[in-house]
Write a sequence for this structure.
């Protein structure tokens, strides 16, 4: 389809292309003529989700855009949640039910009239608590849960413009670019309701958002607090068992005590061994001195007084040694006084014993070495004291070692038990610290969420009147009608499978083309159309004459695959044209053919079941060809589809002219019929396309018959870019 074809298609369907858009625009106008004005309320809220500072914020923290987008999606979904919609709708209904008449700033006259239609005085009396918004709201909310009365649930689930879920779903919320701001909009036909609805939306969704944010960590905090109490109880129990164990075992510091006992034992063992060595040495010296003095046990035994003093001296030395080994002696003044007294008594007893021993000897020098007896006695006495002192210290060391061994025996089994208790305390303490850390983190998170969920209203809800869309809708309706009808026309043209044009007919039928006849209105035939029709009839006649130029008295059959193709009309036109040129034509048509009144045939035959048996024209009609002079015989046959054809005469024909209507498609049945009856090799065939639309005739005659000064001719030249072409050449 080229541009000229497109314009021609528009022109031919101009009535449809004008009527449909105008009708659709008129219908839209009728529907929207009473459309109310639209009022839209808008508010701006700061969230602080992306760039806001909180407890967990750090200078080096990076923004997680996925988390930010998720947070904004959650926020917007809370606004659009059904529970939020229900609370807003009930709050708005409560506010209106408390009024006795339309009130500026709350509800307009038309909106209040709609309210009175859905709320009866009885229902109002049951639910409204005069002057108490909260009590009325609670009653409405409770009635929703119990479905009493039922009308409230019906309103919420209806198409009501103010109090239904459908109305609340018109609340729109979106993030402004990549900022921390969200804008919320809502529009109705009442300015007051638009603003108050948005106020309730902001109030309810902020409250619900805070509740949801707090509930995120509330359960976590409660869990950690419960676990912390359990961990604390376990830790206290283990610590109490450790305390009792230390008290019963008299343990201040097990590791220091065992270290001290080990050190003491090592020191005492070394001192004990050293003291034993000193004792043996003193005994050896004492024995040697006794030999020199010739002192023996019998000597001392004879003198009871000396023996008693010796034992007394030994006891005092042992007592003094015991006093010195006491750990508390350094700080106890009583022990120091006792030690001083013992020392004084020992010194006195030593002098007395020395004197007694000296009195036993009547001689001044010893018999062995010439050493003074007094000197030997002093040495003997000193070594005697040393031996007794060493004995006392050795005995003390032995007792101390026994005590230390007892401590070893006591502390040895306590170590593993103490280690187990300390390990249990450590485990419970670490568990307690971990749970405490988790609780602190949860509390910080909870506090951070509480702080970050404080949404701030930047712009309070304000109302603006939106432009009326009536004109836009009417224009849109007109455009939809125009585009739709144009699309329909183009689709119809593109999907049209009829033969319609000579080019398509030749391609579909596959027979040589003789010409075409345009369709015209019988009552209004213009002069130029008559000229064009005459030219086309001449073309068809000339084509027939050319095909039969060397055939004497040829027989021409006019056929068609279907009925009502215009055979009688065209055969009359052809015969009339041939006769006007001086040719003698014998025309034979079926009886009762459609154009017999306009073009009277020479002979008629009856179409009956016997027709296929007719073999000659004499049998077909009552005529003797030898007695009739003629140049051409034109025989019209019935449509192939009837099946009643004189096949012998069809084969005897010199030329067969197939008539096809342009306003139908070439079906498989047509192809089958044409292949069946037109398969004679010695018969020539031509095709005429009947009822062609005038613009397709231009393929055959061009601009012939058209005024070169008409608007149509000028438009055609414009689309063909023939601005410089001359109308004629002399």
């Amino acid at each position: 389809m080229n541009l000229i074809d497109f314009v021609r298609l528009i022109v031919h369907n101009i009535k449809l292309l004008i009527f449909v858009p105008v009708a659709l625009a008129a219908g839209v106008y009728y529907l929207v003529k009473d459309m109310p004005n639209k009022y839209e309320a808008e508010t701006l809220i700061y969230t602080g989700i992306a760039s806001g500072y909180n407890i967990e914020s750090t200078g080096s923290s990076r923004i997680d855009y996925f988390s930010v987008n998720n947070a904004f999606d959650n926020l917007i979904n809370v606004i659009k949640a059904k529970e939020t919609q229900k609370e807003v709708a009930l709050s708005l209904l409560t506010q209106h039910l408390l009024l006795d008449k339309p009130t500026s700033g709350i509800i307009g006259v038309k909106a209040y009239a709609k309210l009175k239609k859905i709320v009866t005085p009885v229902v109002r009396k049951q639910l409204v608590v005069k002057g108490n918004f909260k009590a009325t709201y609670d009653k409405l909310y409770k009635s929703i849960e119990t479905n009493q009365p039922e009308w409230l649930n019906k309103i919420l689930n209806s198409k009501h413009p103010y109090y239904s879920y459908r109305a609340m779903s018109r609340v729109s919320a979106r993030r402004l670019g990549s900022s921390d701001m969200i804008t919320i909009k809502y529009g109705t036909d009442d300015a007051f309701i638009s603003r108050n609805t948005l106020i309730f939306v902001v109030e309810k969704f902020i409250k619900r958002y805070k509740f949801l944010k707090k509930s995120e960590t509330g359960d976590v905090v409660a869990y950690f607090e419960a676990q912390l109490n359990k961990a604390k109880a376990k830790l206290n129990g283990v610590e109490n068992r450790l305390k009792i164990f230390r008290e019963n075992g008299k343990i201040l510091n097990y590791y220091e005590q065992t270290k001290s006992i080990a050190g003491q034992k090592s020191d005492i063992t070394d001192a004990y061994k050293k003291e034993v060595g000193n004792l043996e040495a003193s005994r050896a010296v004492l024995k040697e001195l006794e030999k020199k003095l010739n002192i023996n046990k019998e000597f001392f035994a004879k003198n009871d007084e000396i023996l008693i003093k010796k034992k007394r001296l030994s006891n005092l030395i042992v007592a003094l040694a015991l006093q010195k080994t006491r750990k508390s002696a350094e700080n106890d003044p009583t022990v120091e006084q006792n030690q001083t007294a013992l020392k004084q008594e020992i010194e006195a007893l030593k002098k007395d014993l020395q004197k007694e021993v000296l009195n036993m000897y009547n001689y001044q020098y010893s018999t062995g070495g010439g050493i003074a007896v007094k000197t030997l006695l002093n040495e003997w006495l000193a070594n005697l004291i040393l031996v007794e002192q060493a004995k006392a210290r050795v005995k003390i060391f032995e007792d101390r070692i026994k005590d230390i061994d007892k401590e070893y025996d006591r502390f040895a089994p306590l170590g593993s038990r103490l280690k187990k208790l300390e390990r249990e305390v450590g485990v419970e303490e670490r568990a307690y610290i971990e749970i405490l850390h988790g609780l602190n983190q949860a509390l910080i998170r909870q506090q951070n969420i509480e702080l970050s969920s404080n949404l701030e209203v930047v712009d309070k809800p304000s109302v603006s009147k939106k432009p009326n869309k009536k004109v836009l809708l009417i224009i849109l309706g007109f455009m939809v009608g125009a585009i739709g009808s144009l699309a329909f026309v183009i689709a119809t043209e593109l999907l049209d499978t009829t033969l319609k044009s000579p080019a398509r007919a030749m391609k579909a039928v596959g027979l040589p083309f003789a010409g075409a006849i345009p369709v015209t209105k019988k009552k209004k035939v213009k002069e130029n159309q008559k000229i064009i029709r005459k030219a086309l009839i001449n073309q068809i006649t000339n084509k027939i004459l050319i095909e039969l130029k060397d055939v004497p008295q040829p027989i021409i059959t006019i056929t068609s695959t279907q009925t009502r193709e215009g055979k009688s009309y065209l055969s009359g036109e052809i015969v009339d044209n041939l006769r006007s040129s001086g040719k003698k034509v014998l025309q034979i048509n079926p009886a009762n053919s459609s154009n017999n009144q306009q073009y009277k045939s020479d002979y008629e035959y009856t179409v009956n079941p016997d027709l296929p048996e007719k073999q000659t024209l004499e049998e077909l009609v009552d005529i003797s060809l030898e007695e009739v002079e003629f140049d051409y015989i034109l025989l019209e046959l019935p449509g192939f589809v009837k099946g009643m054809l004189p096949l012998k005469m069809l084969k005897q024909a010199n030329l067969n002219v197939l008539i096809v209507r342009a306003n139908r498609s070439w079906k498989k049945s047509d192809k089958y019929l044409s292949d069946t009856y037109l398969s004679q090799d010695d018969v020539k065939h031509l095709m005429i396309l009947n009822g062609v639309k005038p613009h397709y005739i231009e393929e055959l005659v061009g601009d012939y018959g058209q005024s070169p000064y008409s608007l149509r001719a000028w438009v055609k030249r414009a689309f063909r870019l023939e601005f410089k072409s001359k109308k004629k050449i002399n």
Observations:
- The chain is about 60% helix and 10% strand.
- The CA atoms of residues 197 and 482 lie 40 Å apart.
- Confidence is low (pLDDT under 50) at residues 362-371.
